[in-house]
Amino acid sequence: MRNQPGQTDPALIRNFCIIAHIDHGKSTLADRMLQITGVVDDRSMRAQYLDRMDIERERGITIKSQAVRLPWNGHVLNMIDTPGHVDFTYEVSRSLQACEGAILLVDAAQGIEAQTLANLYLAMHNDLHIIPVLNKIDLPAAQPEKFAEELAGLIGCDPSDVLRVSGKTGVGVKELLDHVVETVPAPVGDADAAARALIFDSVYDTYRGVVTYVRVVDGHLGKRERITMMSTQATHETLEIGVISPEPKVAEKGLGVGEVGYLITGVKDVRQSRVGDTVTSAARGATEMLAGYDHPRPMVFSGLYPIDGDEYPELREALDKLQLNDASLVYEPETSAALGFGFRVGFLGLLHMEIIRERLEREFGLSLISTAPNVVYRVVMEDGKELTVTNPSEFPTGGKIAQVFEPVTKSTILAPAEFIGAIMEICQGRRGQLQGMDYLSEDRVEIRYTLPLGEIIFDFFDQLKSRTRGYASLDYEPAGEQEADLVKVDILLQGEPVDAFSAIVHKDKAYGYGVDMAKKLRELIPRQQFEVPIQAAIGARVIARENIRAIRKDVLAKCYGGDISRKRKLLEKQKEGKKRMKMVGRVEVPQEAFVAALSTESSTDKAKK
Ligand SMILES: Nc1nc2c(ncn2[C@@H]2O[C@H](COP(=O)(O)OP(=O)(O)OP(=O)(O)O)[C@@H](O)[C@H]2O)c(=O)[nH]1
C-alpha cells in the first residue's frame, strides 16, 4: 500500500493549516488538494468534501475543523481545514497548535479582511511558517498585483513571494503543495520520550462514541494501549487508532512523532476527552503537559423555550446530545412566568446561537421561542456581594447596586477609506472608544475600537454592512470588562412584569427600548375583554405606556337558534386557539406575539424586506 498510515519518518511530515477570512475559499482549496493528491477520486468528489454537517454544506460555511492526511511526492501532508467565522476562532487557535505552517489565503478580488488579520496574528503568535497565497485568480475582478503588494506589506515579504492559485480551477495548487513541502518545517519531537499528544478536536459519533483528534508531539501511541488524559488523570484503552485520508483508516503501527490522527476509546462524552488536554501513556506517563488552550467561554446567553410546553423533555435530551459534540455549549434549566419551562443557554456568539437553534429545530424537530440574547454582567452590591447575571430577570432591583460591569471587546474593522465617517458614527453611537487607525494601502483602513459586547450582539454587523455597502469586515475579541451605567427595563402587562421581555440596557437607551417594546406589543397582542395597559419601567418608575382597548369577542354571536353541535364546534375551535396562548396574569398573549416581539431583527432590517 502506497500510503501505509502510521509511523512515518517525521522528516517527511508537513503539518499545515489553511487560514482565511470567511468565504475566501478555504474549503474549495481543500477540495482541490484532496483531488490533486488523489485521496478522493474525481467520481466521489463533491463540493466542500470536508464539511460533513448538513448545515455546513447548506450555508457554505465550515464550523468544525477537519484534519486530513495527503500523500504528496513521498511526503505526508496533514492538512487542517479551519472555520473562518469569528465565533469559531477558538477552533482555529487549536488547529494552529497542531501545525508548523499556515497557508494564509486571501481572495484576490477582495484583499485583506478583518479575519485575515486576526488569523494571521494567531498564526504568528504560534510561531508558524506563513505562506501568503492569493486565491480566486480566475475571477475577472481579481487584482492580484494590488493585493500581492498589500499582503507582502502586511507580512514583510516580497510581492513576488505571494503565490497565486484558483481553488476553483486548480491553477497553482500543485505548486502550492510543493511549496508546503519545501518551506514548512518538519515536526520535531523526541521519539524515545514518554508519549505526549495534543487533543485538538473531539467529536461525538453515534456509532463509535467520541472520536478524539490528536497530534503526537513526543513518543508513540499504539492500539490497545492504556492512555491517560493528563488534566483529569482518567485512563482509557485505545480501541482504535488511525488517520483520516479522507475516510478513517486504521493505523496498525500506531502514531509516532509529528503525526496527526484519531483515537477511539469508547468514551461517550466529548467532555471526557477535552480539547487542549494532553494524552500520555498510562504505563509510562509524561510529567509535563503540553500547552493547552483556554477553554472557550460563552459570551452570549439566551433563553430557549419549547413553543409546546410538552416538548420540554425532548428539548433537554436534544441539548444533551448536542453537548456531546460541542463542549462550548452550556445550559441550565430556567423557568419563565411567561414562557414556562426552558433553558438558559450560553453561546460563543450570535452565529453559534443561530446554528444551535437551527440544529435543535431541524435535527430534533422542535419548535422554539428564544428570548433576546444578552451578555454576562457582573453586579456589585453596596454590601460588597457580587452577582453574575446571565438573565435580565435576575438583575437585582432596588437601590442597593453599587456598580455594574459589562464585557468589552477589542474590535477591528477593515473597510475602504471612504467609509471611515460612517463607521465612526456607528461605533460612537454604540459607546465605542476609538483606539487607533492605520492605512493598509492608500484606500483601505483598519480601524480599532473598544466596544461593549452587548452593543455588538444585536444588529451591529448588519448596520456596518449596510452603511458600507457590504465592504466592511469585523473581527472582535474579548478584552475584559468596564463599568457602565446599565439599568433593567421591565415590561408590564396590566401591572404584571413579563420576565421574557426584561432587558438590561444602557441608561441612555432605556427610554427608547421601553417605548419601542410597548408599541410593538400593542400591535401584537389582540384586544381582550378588558383594557390592558402596557408599561415599560425602570424599577418603580414608569418610562413608557400604551393601552390595548377592551373588546368582547363572542364566538357564539353568529349562532342564532339552537344548533348545539355547531356551537360546540366553535367552542372547540376557540379552545384550540387558546392552547397557543400564554397567560400573563389575566392577559392572553398569543405565542406569535412573543416570537415577533423577541425577534432580534432591527426595524431597519424589516424595512428592507
Ligand atoms: N471563482 C472562484 N470562486 C471560488 C474560488 N474558490 C472558492 N470560490 C467560491 O467562493 C465561495 C466561498 O468558498 P468556500 O471554499 O466555501 O470558502 P471558505 O473560506 O471555506 O468559507 P468558510 O468555510 O465559511 O470560512 C464559494 O462560492 C466558492 O465557490 C476560486 O478559486 N475561484
Automatic annotation (TrEMBL):
Signal peptide residues on this chain, from the entry's feature table: none
Chief place where the protein resides: membrane
CDD domains for the chain: EF4_II, EF4_III, LepA, lepA_C
Subcellular location: Cell membrane
Catalysed transformations (reactions): GTP + H2O = GDP + phosphate + H(+)
Mode of membrane association: Peripheral membrane protein
EC id: 3.6.5.n1
Superkingdom assignment: Bacteria
GO molecular function annotation: hydrolase activity; translation elongation factor activity
Residues holding GTP: 23-28, 135-138
Domain Tr-type G: 11-188
Keywords: Cell membrane, Elongation factor, GTP-binding, Hydrolase, Membrane, Nucleotide-binding, Protein biosynthesis
UniProt similarity note: Belongs to the TRAFAC class translation factor GTPase superfamily. Classic translation factor GTPase family. LepA subfamily.
Role according to the record: Required for accurate and efficient protein synthesis under certain stress conditions. May act as a fidelity factor of the translation reaction, by catalyzing a one-codon backward translocation of tRNAs on improperly translocated ribosomes. Back-translocation proceeds from a post-translocation (POST) complex to a pre-translocation (PRE) complex, thus giving elongation factor G a second chance to translocate the tRNAs correctly. Binds to ribosomes in a GTP-dependent manner.
Name listed for the protein in its UniProt record: Elongation factor 4
Native source organism of the sequence: Nonomuraea mangrovi
Gene this protein is translated from: lepA
